[in-house]
Amino acid sequence: MRISFGLAVILVVFSLDAHSALAAKGGKKAARKEPVQTMDSGDPTEKEVSEKKVAAAKKKTDEELEEEQKERELALDTAQVKEARAHERVGLFGNVLIGFGKAPEPGPAAEKYTVKTTAATFMVGGHYELSSEFSIGLRIPFTVGSERQTDGLNQNSAVLGAPELMGEYRVTLSPFARLPIFFGLGVPIAQGNYDTETGRRSARMNDFADAASGYRDPELFAPRRLPIIVGVGIEYERKALNVHAATKFVAGVKAGAKAWPKGDPVGDYDVKSVSFRNVTSAGVAYQFLERPKLYGALDSWFATSAINPVEFESFDNAKKPTRFQVAFEPRVGARLGNISPSIGYIFPIGGRLADSSVSGLELHCDVAF
Fold first, then answer.
1. For residue 6, which phi and psi values (nearest 5 degrees)?
2. What's the pLDDT score for residue 2?
3. What is the 3-state secondary structure (H, E, C) of 176-226?
4. How far is Cα 279 from Cα 332, in angstroms, rounded to an integer?
5. Mind listing the pLDDT tens digit for each residue in 146-203?
6. Residues forming a β-bridge with 251
7. Half-sphere exposure of 224 (CA within 13 A, CB side)
8. Is the torsion defined by CA of 160, 161, 162, 165 positive or negative?
9. pLDDT tens, position by position, 11-32
10. Does residue 14 sit within a domain?
């Protein structure tokens, strides 16, 4: 019994010593895992330099802040332009041009056939974007009007113009500027001719439609000619501002136009094999209201008729009418979702059209999809 009791005491003492050793060992490990931090720990110089770097990184100069603001505005403007252009993949339009005045005619015919006329040219068409750079389009004009004769009676006419197939390729110069290169080919079915009185009356109505438009689109109204059109322009659009300019060259190849009858005592009428006109235009538009989206615009163009479809060759070398014409069109319009109506008035500055008091009220509407 004494031996057993002594053995038990020895085992208990040994167990307590082992437990104390293990506890001390575990405490040291814990102390190493979570060292006690003091105010003297770390390098204060290094800490101060780090804080200065953070402060310097947060503080920006006025130039840097201004540059960041410009970048944000540029990104916003670019997104707005892209969004506006994304809704123009398919477009249809209708246009009515109501003209007033007297259509200038060549030679002595001007005195006989330049009579007061009122006419309305209806035009429909549209475009389809095959890609963001290339689109195709179509325009079809039709004119109805009334001529006041010398006896006081009115002579009514209705004539078809030359439908035009168009293509346009756009070169992107910047997010806001594009360079459109366009070309077109007309269908030579514009009504009118020069060998009969009925034919000349139809030709005069198409001549008047050309005059009421300010000689802006000769490819649509030259009787019995195949129009060929090439041109180039530039367009800048940012925020509420749109600025554009273009120049086009229109050649009209004779395709069934008959000669004017001979017999005038002071000269002859010559129906040219090829007519040629250049039209250079420029314009600006500004959206002055956001809701509803209302804008004002001013377009102008300068037309040079190097070769008219019909020229009068005077026997006494009489002075020919001017070949230059300047016209303006102020417009106002709105953008109502996918529909954009506008109204403008075309009036000439100097030249034959001003002398004949030709002007036109233009109503236009675009629908985009």
1. -65, -40
2. 45
3. CEEEEEEEEEECCCCCCCCCCHHHHHHHHHHHHHHHHCCCCCHHHCCCCEE
4. 23
5. 988 777 788 899 999 999 999 999 999 998 999 999 999 999 999 999 999 899 899 9
6. 228, 276
7. 20
8. negative
9. 444 454 544 444 444 444 444 4
10. no
Task: Name beta bridge partners: 6.
Answer: none
Amino acid sitting at position 218: P
**Which range of residues forms the domain containing residue 114?**
75-368
72/48 Cα distance (integer angstroms)? 35
Within a domain: 227:
yes
Q: What is the pLDDT of residue 319?
A: 78
Top pLDDT among 271 and 80 is at 271
Q: In this predicted structure, what is the pLDDT of residue 129?
A: 94
Please report whether residue 64 resides in a domain. Answer: no
- Split into its structural domains, the chain has a count of 1
Distance spanning both ends of the chain, measured CA to CA: 109
SS3 at position 14: helix
Give 56's contacts (C-beta < 8 A, 6+ positions apart). none
Task: Indicate the pLDDT class of residue 267, thresholds 50, 70 and 90.
Answer: confident
Query: Which amino acid, one-letter code, is at 256?
Result: G
pLDDT for residue 39: 45
238: in domain? yes
Question: Which residue type is seen at 334?
Answer: A
Number of helices (H) and strands (E) in the chain: give both, helices first.
6, 15
What type of residue is 148? R
* CATH assignment at residue 304: 2.40.160.40
DSSP string, 17-52: HHHHHHHHHHHHHHHHHSPPP-TT-S-HHHHHHHHH
Nearest partner of 213 among 105, 344, 322, 93, judged by Cα: 344
CA angle centred on 93, ends 128 and 126, rounded to 5°: 25
Q: Are 190 and 222 in contact (CB under 8 A)?
A: yes
